[in-house]
Design brief:
about 90 residues, mainly alpha, Recoverin, domain 1, two-stranded antiparallel sheet, 3 helices, 2 strands
């Protein structure tokens, strides 16, 4: 995965989750921050990487380390989880 693709996805995730009420104790605590709830779609690289928030939750269910105190630690873990499962 290119650094540019990761940076694009990281910025999109940060924008989507920055208004969550931190600390976030579980995945459900993130839903109110999403513009379209679980149907919110994340895309990078002209669709090279694409998934909904619901798909993201499923992919990362075992990799998340809740609670998260801030958006940066959350997004770091999301990116690492996506790398680990081969999405990125």
């Amino acid at each position: 995965m290119s650094d540019e693709l990761e940076a694009e996805l990281r910025a999109e995730l940060k924008d989507a989750f920055e208004n969550a009420d931190y600390p976030v104790k579980n995945q459900m605590g993130l839903v109110p921050a999403l513009p379209n709830g679980p149907a919110t779609k994340f895309e990078a690289g002209d669709g090279e990487v694409s998934f909904t928030a619901m798909e993201l939750a499923s992919k990362l269910s075992g990799n998340a380390d809740f609670p998260y105190a801030d958006v940066d630690s959350l997004v770091d873990d999301i990116i690492e989880g996506l790398k680990d499962d081969g999405t990125l």
